[in-house]
Design a protein that fits this description.
Order of helices and strands: HHHEEHHEH
Number of helices: 6
Distance between the termini: 118 Å
Pfam family, one: Peptidase_A8
Number of domains: 2
Number of strands: 3
Strand order of the largest sheet: 1-2-3
Organism: Streptomyces typhae
Helix content: 55-70%
Membrane topology: Multi-pass membrane protein
Radius of gyration: 44 Å
Function: This protein specifically catalyzes the removal of signal peptides from prolipoproteins.
Catalytic activity: Release of signal peptides from bacterial membrane prolipoproteins. Hydrolyzes -Xaa-Yaa-Zaa-|-(S,diacylglyceryl)Cys-, in which Xaa is hydrophobic (preferably Leu), and Yaa (Ala or Ser) and Zaa (Gly or Ala) have small, neutral side chains
Shape: globular
């Protein structure tokens, strides 16, 4: 019997034969699934990280509406400095000239500068520039104060040198005449402005009036050219 089994051989067992391939296939499937899941996780993480980086970059790149680039802020401050520098220069000249006129020329004969074409003749003017509207002194005082406030507000958005000069002339002239209206007789906010420049066949005026007129003419020219106080140029 033992000899017969040796000759014939032991038959293969199906369960034992099939166990190896199935286990191998199952292990391969699990390993493949683990690899795919890991790849998907890494890809999802990379996508989220990339999206977060782009969103952060977009947030950092978007400046607020009220901010200007760093390079333009010093320029804006320089234009404001020019505005107040021009205003102080015009105001100082007007104030000094009026002090000299009151001390040396008032109640005296006029002085001929260019023959009959130009004279210095000291007068007191209760009205607006060039002697207009003498009955409305208080109204012109309020207007001058309002002009000063408006110019001060515009200065915060000033990025144009020509506008800085024009507004500086307006501000200096308005301050010059407003000082007369506040401190000179006949009383507070009713004071008469000192005028002394008397061209032939023209109204008598002062340096503050000249600064106001020059600043106004410059503003009109800038407006015709399409230049705004913030430096924006409008082209037709």
């Amino acid at each position: 019997m033992a000899e017969a089994e040796r000759i014939i051989g032991t038959p293969d067992i199906p369960e034992a034969a099939g166990a190896g391939p199935e286990q191998s296939a199952s292990g391969s499937t699990e390993e493949s699934g683990s690899t795919e899941e890991s790849g998907a996780t890494e890809e999802s993480g990379a996508t989220e990280e990339s999206g977060a980086t782009e969103e952060s970059g977009a947030t950092d790149a978007a400046p607020s509406n009220d901010e200007r680039p760093e390079g333009e802020r010093p320029k804006g401050r320089r234009k404001i400095a020019v505005l107040f520098g021009v205003a102080l220069f015009a105001y100082g000249l007007d104030l000094i000239s009026k002090m000299i006129v009151v001390a040396k020329l008032e109640h005296h004969d006029s002085i001929e500068v260019v023959g009959d074409l130009l004279r210095f003749n000291a007068i007191r003017n209760a009205g607006a520039a060039f002697g207009f509207g003498e009955a409305y002194t208080i109204i012109f005082t309020v207007i001058a104060a309002a002009v000063i406030v408006v110019i001060a507000r515009l200065a915060r958005k000033l990025y144009s040198l020509p506008w800085a000069i024009a507004l500086g002339l307006l501000l200096g002239g308005a301050l010059g005449n407003l000082t007369d209206r506040i401190f000179r007789s006949p009383g507070l906010f009713k004071g008469a402005v000192v005028d002394f420049i008397a061209p032939k066949n023209f109204a008598v005026f002062n340096l503050a009036d000249s600064a106001i007129v020059c600043g106004g003419i410059l503003i009109v020219l800038l407006s015709f050219r399409g230049l705004d106080p913030d430096g924006t140029v409008h082209k037709d």
